[in-house]
């Protein structure tokens, strides 16, 4: 099974994939490479670490049914499965819980996502940037948030993003443009 706790600290932008990373040879390698990015996507949409882990794990398990599909179909298929799982969990939560659970520990303190590798000032700055981005993403409509996350943060191409979202490439461009404009405004003037 793929471990999602390998990369517990979020980063703003994932590194650009190399040619070797573009299409893993086996489904297991693909699932191992997509796990941490998928967690960040799910966590941004669900705003709860445990729910995000569950959504990603369910999506990874469902991908095993598509082992015989061609490798170039795995990314859009996986992101579609994960997107639908996140939406399903959001709908269930709205029905059962009228509020969003925040990432807090047992004492009610916010969970610290910062990587302790670099110096304290750099860690703090990265944490603040990430929190600002997450807060801004939470204020976007769902389709804009999905387009931005898949296209920019996950570095998927326009066609793959369109297939994952179930819309045209033109719609992805529109959602992405609106998301960038809104994020620019929100991040310049955080509330």
Automatic annotation (TrEMBL):
Gene3D superfamilies: 1.10.1740.10, Winged helix-like DNA-binding domain superfamily/Winged helix DNA-binding domain. One of its GO terms (molecular function) is DNA-directed RNA polymerase activity. It comes from Stenotrophomonas tumulicola. Residues 132-183 form the RNA polymerase sigma factor 70 region 4 type domain. It comes from the Bacteria. One of its GO terms (biological process) is DNA-templated transcription initiation. Belongs to the sigma-70 factor family. ECF subfamily. Its EC number is 2.7.7.6. It holds the Pfam family Sigma70_r4_2. InterPro entries: RNA_pol_sigma-70-like, RNA_pol_sigma-70_dom, RNA_pol_sigma70_r4_t2, RNA_pol_sigma_r2, RNA_pol_sigma_r3/r4-like, WH-like_DNA-bd_sf. Keywords: Nucleotidyltransferase, Sigma factor, Transcription, Transcription regulation, Transferase. NCBIfam families: PRK09047.1, sigma70-ECF. This is RNA polymerase sigma factor.
């Amino acid at each position: 099974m793929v471990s999602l706790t390998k990369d517990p600290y979020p980063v703003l932008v994932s590194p650009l994939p190399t040619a070797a990373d573009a299409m893993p040879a086996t489904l297991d390698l693909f699932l191992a490479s997509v796990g941490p990015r998928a967690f960040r996507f799910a966590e941004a949409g669900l705003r709860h670490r445990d729910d995000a882990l569950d959504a990603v794990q369910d999506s990874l398990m469902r991908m095993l049914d598509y082992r015989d599909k061609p490798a170039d179909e795995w990314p859009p298929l996986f992101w579609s499965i994960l997107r639908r799982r996140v939406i399903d969990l959001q709908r269930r939560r709205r029905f059962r819980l009228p509020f969003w659970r925040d990432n807090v520990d047992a004492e009610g303190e916010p969970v610290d996502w910062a990587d302790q590798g670099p110096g304290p000032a750099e860690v703090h700055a990265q944490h603040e940037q990430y929190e600002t981005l997450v807060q801004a993403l939470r204020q976007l409509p769902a389709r804009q948030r999905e387009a931005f996350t898949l296209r920019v943060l996950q570095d998927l191409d326009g066609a793959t993003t369109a297939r994952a979202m179930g819309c045209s490439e033109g719609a992805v461009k529109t959602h992405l443009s609106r998301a960038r404009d809104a994020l620019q405004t929100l991040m310049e003037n955080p509330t």
